[in-house]
Amino acid sequence: IGMKVYQMVSMLLLSLMTLNQVNEVEGRYVTRASRNLVRHIRRRMERTYGLGLTGLIHPVTKAFNHEAVIRQRGGRKENEVVGNTYDMGLHHVLGFFHRMVSQENPTYFEEIEGKQFDRYDQVSFVYGWIVALHADPDTMTSSNCFLAAFEAVTQIDYLMADWAIVDETKNYFNVFVYGPQHIQGNLAASYEYCNLYIYATQLSYIFQFDYGYLSELGTRYSMLLSTEAEPFLTDIYALLAEEPTDWYLVGMRWGLLWQIMFDVKLES
């Protein structure tokens, strides 16, 4: 047992030491595999949604074409239902925080009926999150970062669909080999094109006990709590009150807050 504990502690220390070196890297080399993959993704998505992906995101209104995405994924099935927002306690948690930051005009999320959501709603939420994090909405659909991240989420959705019916199809190759391999490639391309190493850099500052960075975080989050928390929860209340709830817009609103929280935008 002592040897196992020693090995675990050694691996943890080695991981932290490696993480501490991440901040010394200013950029990431984009591999040929990622370049070829994103080139293939661009051609395939343009065949599906048109040049400039105008059939996915409207070039003027920026409206997201749910119908096209749902049609591409083969529709929405009854066995994809995940749960209900009220039963999961989401309304109580949001209501508690909103009453905490807004004593004068508290909003009672408990008054909203529970929203049943399925796997596409989850995926739609992440799509909106990705769009909100992008630095330039006007050039977003031509960005290699957006293409890689969008495709990574799509492939995860497809893998979950295959996993749900693997007992019927017996298609174990797609579930255990083909799907995970595609996801790994897309996640690698997203990491390289979107400069996601920045999150690892910020984490390394925390493990290094960089007091300047920790002080900056404390100041930033205290200001966010006082200035952004109430507007965020008010917008979420309005979005959840709509029927039906557009989880893409909920994801966008969360992405806008995330962008401020970590001071990071996705860039190609």
Defining traits:
268 residues; mainly alpha; two-stranded antiparallel ribbon; 65% helix; globular
Overview of the structural elements:
By secondary structure, the protein is mainly alpha-helical. The protein is built from 12 helices and 2 strands. Helix 2 (32-49) crosses helix 6 (144-164), helix 5 (119-133) runs antiparallel to helix 6 (144-164) and helix 11 packs antiparallel against helix 12 (247-262). The longest helix is centred in the last third of the chain and has 22 residues, at 172-193. Residues 19-27 have low confidence and may be disordered.
Widest sheet: strand order? 1-2
Largest sheet: 2 strands, antiparallel
Mean pLDDT over the full residue set: 85
Over the alpha carbons, how many angstroms does the gyration radius reach? 21 Å
Please work out how many helical segments DSSP would assign.
Answer: 12
